[in-house]
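ingest -> validate -> predict -> emit
validate: passed (alphabet ok, no gaps, 99 aa)
predict: started
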Amino acid sequence: MASHRRLKNKIYSIVILGGKCLECGSYLLPSQYDLHHPEGRRPDTPHDLMGLSREDLDNELEEVILLCANCHRLEHTAYNEDDIDMLNIFEEYDEEDDA
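emit:
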C-alpha cells in the first residue's frame, strides 16, 4: 500500500523535524506541512520524498526544514517593488469602498 507508506513517512518526517512549522511555530495537520530545502534541491532529489524508503527519507530529512504550507509559499515568494505597489493599490481600493 503505497498511500499507507506515504502517510507514515509524512508523519515520521513531521515528528523528526520537530512537529511544528519552523517559521511561525504552528502545530497543524499533516496535510498542512511542506518540507523545504533551504539550500535548494539537488538535481537528483526526487520530487516525492514521501514515497522513499525510510533510509533514503532519513538522508533527505537532513537537508530540509518543516514549514506550514503558507510559510513555504512565502519562502518562495520574492517581494519586489511591483509587489509593494500592488499592496498599495489594494489598500487604496479598500479605502474607496469605505467612503
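The chain is about 50% helix and 10% strand.
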